[in-house]
């Protein structure tokens, strides 16, 4: 059997629980590579290069942009964030499925650049629940929470541009749904790479 992997692009608003759902899925499936993003911001306490992010200088990042070696990128608060192209392509060629967890802007860039990718939107069950989750963190000011909720409304308005929507009401159920999407794509005829002799 010989198959290429599938690129799954996961996005959703802050507080939707993307990280929790993805952790459960990644722990339960083989042949799955979680893409590590690159950034020019300084590492925070406890963050490791190559694990949490690839920490680059502005010059290194801008070289990747010039050489078109990023799947997507954006600039926030004077820092770049993006997805290195080479590792993703290498793992796809090895037959592994690749997971990108990125912001809406980046997800739409990837969808345009690689239309064969599989975009998945992880949504909260309601805005009230999203607000409860953001407030429950206890780590952000009222101003930041209101800003995140405003951004979330705009992000959810773009939900119809995604092939799949997983509603994260219960993390285990949402993980089962995302896992099912990945397994179903592995079973597509064109993804099997399998012939009988």
Low-confidence stretches: none
Rounded mean pLDDT score: 92
Number of continuous helical runs: 8
Strand order in the sheet with the most strands: 2-7-1-8-9
Radius of gyration: 17 Å
- Kindly, what is the distance between the CA atoms of the first and last residues, rounded to a whole number of angstroms? 12 Å
Fraction of residues in helices? Answer: 40-55%
Basic shape: globular
Biggest pleated-sheet summary: 5 strands, parallel
Structural class: alpha/beta
- Which sequence of SSEs, written as H and E, runs from N to C? EHEEEHEEHEHEHHEHH
Provide the β-strand percentage band. Answer: 15-25%
Strand elements, count: 9
List keywords for this structure.
197 residues; alpha/beta; 5-stranded parallel sheet; 4-stranded mixed sheet; 9 strands; 44% helix
How does the SSE layout of this entry go?
Elements: E1 7-11, H1 18-28, E2 32-34, E3 38-39, E4 54-55, H2 58-66, E5 70-76, E6 79-84, H3 85-93, E7 97-101, H4 104-113, E8 118-123, H5 127-137, H6 142-157, E9 164-167, H7 171-186, H8 189-192
Parallel strand pairs: 1-7, 1-8, 2-7, 3-4, 8-9
Antiparallel strand pairs: 3-6, 5-6
Helix pairs in contact: 1-7, 5-6
């Amino acid at each position: 059997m010989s198959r290429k992997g599938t690129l799954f692009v996961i996005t959703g608003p802050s507080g939707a629980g993307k990280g929790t759902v993805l952790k459960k899925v990644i722990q339960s499936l083989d042949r799955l590579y979680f893409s590590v993003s690159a950034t020019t911001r300084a590492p925070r306490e406890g963050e490791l290069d190559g694990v949490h992010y690839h920490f680059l200088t502005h010059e290194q990042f801008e070289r990747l942009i010039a050489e078109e070696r990023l799947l997507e990128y954006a600039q926030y608060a004077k820092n770049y964030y993006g997805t290195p192209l080479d590792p993703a392509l290498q793992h796809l060629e090895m037959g592994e499925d690749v997971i990108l967890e990125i912001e809406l802007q980046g997800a739409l860039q990837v969808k345009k650049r690689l239309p064969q990718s599989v975009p998945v939107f992880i949504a909260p069950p309601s805005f009230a629940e999203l607000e409860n989750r953001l407030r429950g963190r206890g780590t952000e000011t009222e101003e930041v929470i209101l800003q995140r909720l405003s951004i979330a409304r705009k992000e959810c308005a773009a939900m119809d541009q995604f092939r799949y929507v997983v509603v994260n009401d219960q993390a285990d159920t949402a993980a089962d749904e995302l896992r099912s999407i990945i397994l179903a794509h592995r079973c597509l005829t064109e993804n099997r790479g399998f012939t009988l002799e």
